Amino acid sequence: MSDELSYGEIGTHYKKFIASSQVMVDFAIETKDGKKIKKVLSIIADPKITAVDAQNGEAVLNGRVNYKVLFVNEDEEVVSLDYFADYKDKIAAPEITPTSRLAAKTDVIDVEIGGDGNVVVSLVIENSLYMIAQEAIPALKDVADNYLGERRKIFTQSYLDALISSTEISDEVATGTNVSQVLMFDAAVAVDESVVGNGIITINATVFANVLYVNADGAFENKQFAIPVTEEQQTVQGTDVRAFTDAVIKNTKVVLSGSEGNNIIRIEAIVQFDTTIIVTVEEEIVSDLFSVSNEITVKTEKFSASKFLESAAFRDTVNGSVNLDESRPAVGEILACVGVVNKLAAVKPSGEKVIVEGVVGLTVIYKDIDEVIDSVDIEIPYSIATKRPTMADESYRLEGKGAAGTVTVKRRRDRELDVSAELFFSIQAYGEDGVYVISDVVETETKKDVSAISVYNTAPGETLWDIAKALSAPPEEILKQNGELVIPVKSPGRVLLYRCLE
Fold first, then answer.
1. Cα(212)–Cα(498) distance, integer angstroms
2. Is the pLDDT of residue 327 over 80?
3. Is 465 strand, coil or helix?
4. What is the model's pTM?
5. pLDDT per residue over 279-306, tens digit each?
6. What structural domains does the chain harbor?
């Protein structure tokens, strides 16, 4: 290895999927008054990862599932119950070390209700583990004296530590009646955009809340909230700083106030924003070289890693009709819809568009034609195409997260329901960035038979570097002696080079 060559290390961070694991969480519903459960109307399960601990060869995940259960007891009363269950999971992978930067997400795969006497809820949860990994490789950075090198710019990425911040939100609505009981309250948040500028990340999001309550007359009422939220986070200054944000609801509360005959429902929540920041840095490497006096052997290696490209958020509306099975009681009156979720099944590029496929799931609480309260779980499949030319390359890997906003359900016939749901999507695009770098250069022997005059026959498309490398001469010397040379070469021709031989 010549002393005239300067090497350095280039490296880039990227998000790497490690593995997924499924865990089952069971719990028995225990009523506060000891009355037996006759019928479960709805179960909302909201799992969250509370901690990820990196150890040698494995990750330990701690999670918590918050349940909201709505049921009819033996006295035909509609009752709600909040419950939580903690769980632990382990995912093994040899590349995990105590210093690994890990992240995890969790999703509900299946919910089953069973039990003999006591009602037992079995929940299947899938945990997915990710790592911020780094690829690094030695690369030739500079040459001097006896070497001539061609340089090129490459771009590497670094993932900064995630920014986490929280904000409190609230909203209220007058009901125009007395609220005798709040049966169920759930909330979700959708991020509309994350804008980076002047060291500030501005996040715009919307919190959707749904309150099911009983008024003084014993009638069910359903209020939906859509609350805009703006959060600012400080980050590094730079011309190529990118970010995307995930958000979750940490805590929620319903407060009743107001006057007789016009109670006010006030909802309060804490929203947590978790922002991933990617900084792209420009570096220069020597992509090709030759020695004026010596023959050389050049070793190259391919440097490649997943690269974050961009993030996009959009919203759409899905409409669909659902027919209830003949075995179910016919719908007389719709009381409420609860537990709305937007489950993504696939996100894929197609032409200039991104295709998002998934299912909207929800539970409809209703009275049948005999005034008996019942419920039905329904699903509306969808396939949405959104024009995103910059992230629709077939070679890109797309990841997405869905959220549901305002939902309306209308009765068309006894067993036919019309559903309209506002959906939100956050999509990230990743690509494979590959470049060949020079990892080693070995001088083999002194060049022989160097002529005082050399003639090179050029071919169309050749560059000045191609000619210089073929003649083992500095590019500026070739231009100096061949003033009529047009680069890149348009048509075949000849290049003359005169050398002063010692």
1. 91
2. yes
3. helix
4. 0.86
5. 999 899 999 998 888 888 899 999 888 8
6. 10-142 (no CATH), 146-292 (no CATH), 309-446 (no CATH), 449-502 (3.10.350.10)
